[in-house]
Amino acid sequence: MGKKNTSNASSSRANRPRRGGRAQRHKSARTSQQSQSLSSFPEDSAKPSSIIEDDSSNHSSGSQTTTHERTAGRPHIDVPVAMWDFDHCDPRRCSGKKLARLGLITELRVGSRFRGVVVSPKGTLVVSPADKEIVVRDGVAVVECSWARIDDVPFSKIASPHERLLPYLLATNPTNYGKPWRLNCVEALAATFYITGFDQHAETLLSSFGWGDSFWKVNGPYLKRYQTCASAEEVAVMQETIIAELQESYETSRREKGSYFRLCVSISHI
């Protein structure tokens, strides 16, 4: 909030009539500047060390809960949204913790069972439109953990009948922009909602982050194709098709660049 400029008012207070007008108040203008360094898409599709890495762009908010965050009116998500957080990431940069402060996600205790779709590195099937009824009935949850510490996670105590993996998607959070599979907590939840047909829920979650609209802009073509599938098996096949197309596009681009380089060399020798 801007500070009041009272220096002129205090210096002339003695010269004013007792019942005169108030000194004019001036509010300082607010300024804000946001910058992001966006890396280019990687050339390979290797999975990173963590399938869900939380890294919110709101670094300055820390773990403090503000009155604005608690009271700001936000659209209601009418299905359960939850997470098990094993504190593998910096609390000040965790997108899941920010969602909790905003009242958009519930933190689950170890030992609590969640009967909805759980995005977990231990899943054997990918999320698909076939999971829609499960989401309607029991919601979506994520497991925040690092592959480097996967043995420390008591998966037997957080088991779910519907553990799922995510198909090929690109992270759009500022830290891991363009990296395949390296989604943070809010991106993983949004991806699950998009694939199962709950676009509005996905947008509600992403709208809490300045970079949130980039997720659909980058991944929309992939998500639309996953939405056309009827089962996890079809989503897996679609994923392989997408990866093959990307690889072919990369190889074609590299061949064209090589041909152009050889042409330039030939011309230079004429």
From TrEMBL:
Alphabetically ordered keywords of this record: Cytoplasm, Nucleus, Ribosome biogenesis, rRNA processing, S-adenosyl-L-methionine, Transferase
Record domain RNase L inhibitor RLI-like possible metal-binding: where: 79-112
Function: Aminocarboxypropyltransferase that catalyzes the aminocarboxypropyl transfer on pseudouridine at position 1191 (Psi1191) in 18S rRNA. It constitutes the last step in biosynthesis of the hypermodified N1-methyl-N3-(3-amino-3-carboxypropyl) pseudouridine (m1acp3-Psi) conserved in eukaryotic 18S rRNA.
Subcellular location: Cytoplasm; Nucleus
InterPro entries given in the database record: RNaseL-inhib-like_metal-bd_dom, Tsr3-like, Tsr3_C
Stated name of the protein: 18S rRNA aminocarboxypropyltransferase
UniProt superkingdom: Eukaryota
PANTHER family per record: 18S RRNA AMINOCARBOXYPROPYLTRANSFERASE, RIBOSOME BIOGENESIS PROTEIN TSR3 HOMOLOG
An MF annotation (GO) of this entry: rRNA small subunit aminocarboxypropyltransferase activity
Region (Disordered): 1-75
Lineage of producing organism: Eukaryota, Fungi, Dikarya, Basidiomycota, Agaricomycotina
EC number(s) stated in the UniProt entry for this protein: 2.5.1.157
Annotated Basic residues bias: 15-29
Gene Ontology terms: biological process: enzyme-directed rRNA pseudouridine synthesis; maturation of SSU-rRNA
Species: Suillus plorans
Similarity comment: Belongs to the TDD superfamily. TSR3 family.
Binding site for S-adenosyl-L-methionine: S95, V143, L166, W181
Biased composition (Polar residues): 30-42
Pfam families membership: Fer4_RLI (PF04068), Ribo_biogen_C (PF04034)
GO CC aspect terms: cytoplasm; nucleus
Domain 16S/18S rRNA aminocarboxypropyltransferase Tsr3 C-terminal stretches: 117-242
Reactions catalysed: N(1)-methylpseudouridine(1191) in yeast 18S rRNA + S-adenosyl-L-methionine = N(1)-methyl-N(3)-[(3S)-3-amino-3-carboxypropyl]pseudouridine(1191) in yeast 18S rRNA + S-methyl-5'-thioadenosine + H(+); an N(1)-methylpseudouridine in rRNA + S-adenosyl-L-methionine = N(1)-methyl-N(3)-[(3S)-3-amino-3-carboxypropyl]pseudouridine in rRNA + S-methyl-5'-thioadenosine + H(+)
